[in-house]
Amino acid sequence: MRCKQFIFVSLAGVVLAASLAGCGGVAPASSAAASSVAASSVVVSSAAAEAALPDGVYTADFETDSSMFHTSEACNGKGTLTVENGVMTFHVSLASKKIVNLYPGLAADAEANKTAWLIPTVDTVTYADGTTEEVYGYDIPVEALDTDFQLALLGTKGKWYDHTVSVRNAEPKTEQAAETPADGAYTAAVVLEGGSGRATVESPASLTVAEGKMTATIVWSSPNYDYMIVDGEKYLPTNTEGNSTFEIPVAALGTPLAVTADTVAMSKPHEIEYTLTFTLE
Questions:
Q1: What pTM was estimated for this model as a whole?
Q2: Which UniProt keywords apply (predicted)?
Q3: Which of 59, 210, 246, 250 might form a disulfide with 214, Cβ 3.0–4.6 angstroms?
Q4: Residue ranges of the alpha helices (H) in 23-159?
Q5: CA-based angle 136:137:138, to the nearest 5?
Q6: Quick one: which H or E segment has residue 176?
Q7: What is the dihedral sign for C-alpha 124, 129, 131, 136?
Q8: What is the pLDDT of residues 4-49, one digit of tens each?
Q9: How many CA within 13 A on the CB side of residue 233?
Q10: Torsions phi, psi for 164 (to 5 deg)
Q11: Which of 175-179, 243-247, 248-252, 271-275 has the least mean pLDDT?
């Protein structure tokens, strides 16, 4: 699955001040109110500073109050959150082109604030079976994470609808995540190193990405491998005839993956250390 996502975020602080009535040895109302405003500003600014994310790119969940308003199936409910100069913007690829505009606020206010309408982008998403589709995407300003806010939508029939949405569970996009291709089926060149040099694996290999996790199909040049170990987990062959075939997880492209393969070709079973490096073709 492939979701094009670009994000820029906006944090706005709102300070509420209460007037205090002066009496007996208490400071005048104007002074007390000014002090209250100042104190409130400090508290709000401090809270905002703690809540704000460092500048960078994140993945985050997009939650709505309607099953008719959601991300493309290819995106698994997620979008891309970009923080730039402390301003947050969330890019989401929707399920179709049936939502023609968004407005950050209530539907009743949308027509009077056309300059604030969010204009769609055309995003191409890729599904697990490799098929692609063009859908509308939106860059949505976000003032606070993990907090509900109003977002009205305009459908193809020209009517605005109110919805409550939120952007939650923001996580930094790691270097590994940046290298992981969109969900789908791929072929990858494989470089095998280690062992005696006699064994080989088929290259290119099939590589599948599902929910952001990569799995490779490894076919050895021998039928004598009875298991592989990757990150402490044991994987058994997926076939009973022909050369030993395994499906193993791949942590990152372009980075050697340490594996152990056990062969029964010798007088007794013997574990051999290898590395496998995958590169998309």
A1: 0.49
A2: Signal
A3: 250
A4: 29-51, 107-110
A5: 130
A6: helix 175-179
A7: negative
A8: 443 333 333 333 333 333 333 333 333 344 434 344 443 433 334 3
A9: 8
A10: -110, 125
A11: 175-179
